[in-house]
Specification:
The complex is a heterodimer of chains A (about 130) and B (about 200). By secondary structure, chain A is mainly α. Chain A has a domain of about 70 residues. Helix content of chain A is about 80%, strand content about 0%. Chain A has 4 helices and no strands. The model of chain A has no long low-confidence stretch (mean pLDDT about 85). By secondary structure, chain B is an all-alpha fold. Chain B has a domain of about 90 residues. Chain B is built from 7 helices and no strands. In chain B, helix 5 runs antiparallel to helix 6. The longest helix of chain B has about 35 residues. Chain B is elongated and about 110 Å long. In chain B, about 5% of the residues are buried. Classes of the chains: A mainly alpha (about 130), B mainly alpha (about 200). At the A-B interface, helix 1, helix 2 and helix 3 of A face helix 7 of B.
Chain lengths: ~130, ~200
């Protein structure tokens, strides 16, 4: 059941993304590349992580200084920490995806490095001066 | 010529024939009076001359105290044109005065004014249609871009909107639409990231 739900959510989100990208293309804007989309996702993960950290700080303040139910607050903090871990994982995942896409664009990295080295190397002219 | 009315002829028919004749006479009189009552500045040359003549005839008949003279007088109408003066006043022209500008025909403009077209509403509809003409839905996009947009742009140009103004609207709408798409994509990314983190979409 949960798998079906996840699949449905994923399908709907992909459909929305495709429609938005199609609209942008019809306005002659081809700037939304897959790399840019991944960067946007990573940025949003970062933003959510910041929100979660702020919430965690609030809960810790509540735990230490206010007289509330400590057990409940502790449960909330634990849950937040698990979300924070997930956010970190998601960010790493997006990072890896971006790196892979960039590598794919570059092609063979060794060949590129070799070409880069050839371009960067200064041409040396050796002049042998003979003494008559 | 003798005309004998038989006793067997129904009286209703006779009465109806008499009534019809009376009505026709009244209608003719009414029409003559209407022509006379018309304001002289609203009449053309022919009507004015006819009205003058009939008035003179009525006056003459009154003076002579006899009705036979007026009935037998030949009815002759003269066509009189308004005085032709040396100066000519050009009221309107469809020829463009400036070489670089083109005037929309006055008749069309007057027609549109008579129909009471709201230019603001029309412009708003044009903007909406322009937005929808780049829809992801293929049928909607085709209909909006080919049918509705063509008609609206034609109507706007007939109303006197210049091509520069139309281009300006287009660029404004494009900017708005792209910012809207960007905001929606950011929202989409936020939703997806949130679902990833809270355990929805993996």
């Amino acid at each position: 059941m949960a798998r079906n739900k996840k699949k449905a959510q994923s399908t709907i989100l992909n459909e929305i993304k495709n429609q938005l990208l199609l609209q942008a293309e019809r306005w002659d804007n081809y700037g939304y590349s897959p790399i840019k989309i991944e960067e946007m996702l990573k940025d949003q993960c970062d933003k959510i992580k910041g929100d979660l950290l702020a919430e965690k700080n609030n809960l810790e303040y509540e735990l230490n200084y206010l007289g509330t139910d400590k057990r409940e607050v502790l449960i909330k903090i634990e849950r937040l920490e698990s979300y924070l871990k997930k956010a970190n994982k998601a960010m790493e995942k997006h990072d890896r995806t971006i790196r892979r896409m960039v590598d794919k664009l570059i092609g063979d990295i060794k060949a590129v490095n070799r070409a880069k080295g050839l371009i960067d190397s200064k041409s040396q002219i050796s002049v042998m001066l003979g003494v008559n | 010529m003798s005309f004998n009315v038989g006793a067997e002829l129904p009286k209703e028919k006779l009465y109806a024939a008499q009534k019809l004749k009376q009505n026709q006479g009244q209608a003719e009189q009414q029409a003559q009076q209407n022509v006379q009552k018309q304001a002289p500045n609203m009449m053309n040359g022919v009507q004015w001359q006819a009205a003058q003549q009939s008035a003179q005839q009525v006056q003459g008949a009154k003076n002579a105290n006899g009705s036979t003279a007026t009935n037998n007088a030949p009815k002759s109408f003269e066509i009189s044109l308004p005085e032709i003066s040396d100066t000519a006043v050009l009221l309107s022209t469809s020829v463009s005065i400036n070489e670089e500008s083109v005037e929309a025909p006055t008749l069309t403009r007057n027609l549109l004014r008579a129909v009471n077209i709201n230019m603001g509403a029309l412009e708003e509809t044009y903007r909406e249609t322009l937005k929808k003409s780049r829809s992801h839905n293929m049928l909607l996009e085709r209909f909006m871009s080919n049918v509705k947009m063509g008609g609206l742009s034609k109507l706007l140009s007939m109303c006197g909107m210049s091509a520069e103004k139309l281009d300006e609207i287009k660029s404004e709408v494009r900017k708005e639409a792209l910012s809207e798409i960007d905001a929606k994509l950011v929202h989409w990314a936020y939703t997806k990231a949130m679902l990833e983190i809270t355990g929805g979409v993996g």
